[in-house]
Amino acid sequence: MKKLILVRHAKSSWEYDVIDADRSLSERGVKDAHRTSEYLKDKIPEPDIVFASPANRALHTCIIFLKTLNIPFQKLHIAEDMYDFEGEKVINLLRNLEDTFQSVAVFGHNNALTSLCNIFGDKAIDNLPTSAVAVINFNVQAWAKIERGITELTVIPKKLR
């Protein structure tokens, strides 16, 4: 059994004139990331490995989750393939994982994460909003064989306010 935890980065700020990868989180984004990760404390297992986009907003969201969920920072891998807006690079990253990993968390961007929810999950999602989480289980032993799984949990921060 494999478990995929998809986390879309928190709401970013457009206040500063910086390149896309350098955009920071907005105040609401920070609050929503804390709110969502607090909610997940007893609902998801600690992932074996964590991948985050190198973009500031995704990495900052990831750090909030790691701290809140007491996940060791040694599990974090910053992956250029997570700075993907379509999903193909993320799928490739997942399908090439070592099979010793049972549970994997990824912190990335839309449209990629919404696409992955719909490609791999059994519940259609129009849009995975910022700071939202989807957890999908796969009844396979190898990451290379992930196809359609079961969407175990979807957490939308707006519903937690």
The stretches of 5 or more residues where confidence is low (pLDDT under 50) are none
CATH class: Alpha Beta
Residue-averaged pLDDT, rounded?
97
Helix content: 25-40%
Characterise this structure:
The protein has helices at residues 27-40, 56-68, 88-95, 112-120, and strands spanning 2-8, 49-52, 76-78, 103-108, 133-138, 150-155. With 161 residues, it is α/β, with parallel strands linked by helices. It has one domain (2-160): 3-Layer(aba) Sandwich (Rossmann fold). Helix 2 (56-68) links the parallel strand 2 (49-52) and strand 3 (76-78). The mean pLDDT is 97.
Using brief descriptors, characterize the structure shown:
globular, Rossmann fold
Task: Please specify the SSE layout and strand pairing.
Blueprint lengths: L1 E7 L18 H14 L8 E4 L3 H13 L7 E3 L9 H8 L7 E6 L3 H9 L12 E6 L11 E6 L6
Parallel strand pairs: 1-4, 2-3, 2-4
Antiparallel strand pairs: 1-5, 5-6
Helix pairs in contact: 1-2
Question: Could you write a compact summary of the structure shown?
Answer:
The protein is α/β, with parallel strands linked by helices and 161 residues long. It has helices at residues 27-40, 56-68, 88-95, 112-120, and strands spanning 2-8, 49-52, 76-78, 103-108, 133-138, 150-155.
